[in-house]
Amino acid sequence: PSARLWRSSAGRASMMKMAGMRGVHILLLLAMVGRASGQCYLLDADALCEVCWKTTYASTSDSVGVTTVAECPAGLVEAWDVPPPDKMIALISYPVKWSVNFNLTAFPVIQAGPNANHIPHANLHSCIASRGVCSPFVANSPGLATHTKALKSDLTINGNSGSVVFATELSLTEEQYTIIAHVRFYVPHADSSLPNIKYDMAIGASRNVLPQTTLCEPGSVYDIATDTCNICPPGTHQQGLNCTMCSTGTYAPVEGLSACIPCEAGYTDLEGQTSCVSCPELTQRRPASPGKSVQECLCLPGSYAKYGVGKGCLECPTGAVCPGGLERPYPKRGFWGDVACDFDPEWGNSSCPGFDSFIECNPVTDCAGGPEFSCEAGHSGHLCKQAQPGWFIVGGAFWLECGESGHFVGIVGILAVVLVWLTINKVASGNYDAMDIALLFVQITGMISTFGLKWHENLSVVNTAFGIANFDVDFVTPLCLTKWTGVESFYVQLSMPAIYAAGCIIYYSTVHFFGRYVVHNKSESMHGWNKLQDNLVNKVASFIIVMYHTLCIKCFQSFHCEEFPDGRSFMKFAPDVECWKPDHISMVVISALYIPTVLVGFPTYLAFMIKRAEDNGTLHNPAFMEKWSFAFARYDPGYKWWESVLTLRRFSIALISVAFDTSLLQAALTIIVLVFLLIWHTHTRPFVSDQID
């Protein structure tokens, strides 16, 4: 028989009170075991015998009782059916099974209490060996011991024998352990007046749980079933005892990695990837981003996200600067973009279908560009063609502030231009052939200067001076005096012949009235009146010829619309007028009538009338000469209609300047027209004077 150690009730009570104190509890257990031999695993880690803790109670009120510990007596047999494996790896779950056989004659196990089982409690206790003795009474405490889930069961009874089997999963951290299989049961006391006797029974096993890193090479995991190391495949990495798929933002291009590689440039938005996905075209990863989504790929400098983040970027539009990232394009200096077009680069949403369209300004000096979509000082509106309040324009090239004397400046400027126009028309209506040809040259040069060619900046002053000869009412805009838009400019320009005619009528009527009623020379007055009428026709007709090309340009411009980034169309040459709205429709209708009646009809009528007079022999009639000599007197017989050819030349160049947007094409077509007419002129030599020819 094995030696037995007894402990008093007081000693047992003291031990239970201190169960929560880890160090004291271990000392008590060691004292309880002592140095007796044959105490199984308590003193011999390799022993397979059972240890029993028997607790008896002196009365029903005794809650502590007296516990003795010894090798279990005959009639109780506990054994490992599936013991913890000799080779255990940290954090791997191992199946463990143990069983107990009872001699029910010696140990009549009872079901203590209502709805109780024969075995009300069973589990595994794994105690860290360096902390001391492992017993059923060691608490489940970090750094001391760990318990598996508590189990319970009834016996399988066969005659005088009873048996029970328990199974559980055991997973431990790296450490040296004493593992016990604990079973608790009750038997009746010989004295039926006393409480049942409690038995705590255990068998033990000593196991060294090895760290995972000692089993396999880095990048491999241990297979408990085959006791082999398996290399983690591409797209995974070793994480403990498992091959875990690489998380988003990382990848594993080869097998056997202990850690996945972060994506340096691209991204991975799925787990288990063997390579990173390249960012879309013209994009790069945002600095310090984790590389988990295509949303982190932003535009490179020089590109922009038209369709939203993650959908690739486009090369910067012509005339724009693209900072990259989530920034929207903005115009270069000399280009215009519509700042009113809002744009969300993250989703590619814009209120304007052409938010990324940038139009070259003409002249380029009108537009400052930049992130603020700025115009130069004094400029505003579409294409920076409108003047800011308090500014006016001279010659289309000089933008000046009105200042405090704005009204005076505006009036003086307009009167000065009108005076120049009257002087030019006086020359044109007379027989100053060389001056007239020089005027035509200046006007054609003025039209060509509007082409978007790379003119030298010093030519702006010259072009402005030439511009005054074009009889354009926009030469000095009366913005310091009144509202002035493309609509007002159109109507005033086309009305200029009628306005001039009205002025001449008033002037000549005054002269006639003075001669008839003040001087009282009725006969001379009537003769003078007829002459004044002829002179009036001469002045008005020559005025139409002088400003003919400007009338052409104004009419042609009303048909030329350009779509802007916000999807609306505006007149290209009057960007403050929206196309196909009431104001523009009226301009188109009037232009459609003006072109055949005035621009085509008047030169045609003039050529027909001169030809008929030449055929009828009335060409040199004094009255006819008074009216129309400016149009034919300088030409040889047979070419009296040549003025219509010169008119056709201006018509053609005006049409080219408006109908075509490409400056090189404008220049090429103009050269063709001029060379063709030059050859024709050289062949015919239509002027009377060889010097003029």
Detailed description of the structure:
Helix content is 32%, strand content 23%. With 693 residues, it is an alpha+beta fold. The strands form 14 sheets. Strands 1, 2, 4, 6, 7, 8, 11 and 12 form an eight-stranded mixed sheet that branches. A four-stranded antiparallel sheet has the order 3-5-10-9, with no helix packed on it. α6 runs antiparallel to α7 (522-546), α7 (522-546) packs parallel to α10 and α11 (642-659) packs antiparallel against α12. The radius of gyration is 55 Å and the shape is rod-shaped. The relative contact order is 0.05. Residues 1-38 and 523-527 have low confidence and may be disordered.
Task: Name the descriptors.
single chain, 693 residues, alpha+beta, 8-stranded mixed beta sheet, 4-stranded antiparallel beta sheet, 12 helices, 37 strands, disordered N terminus
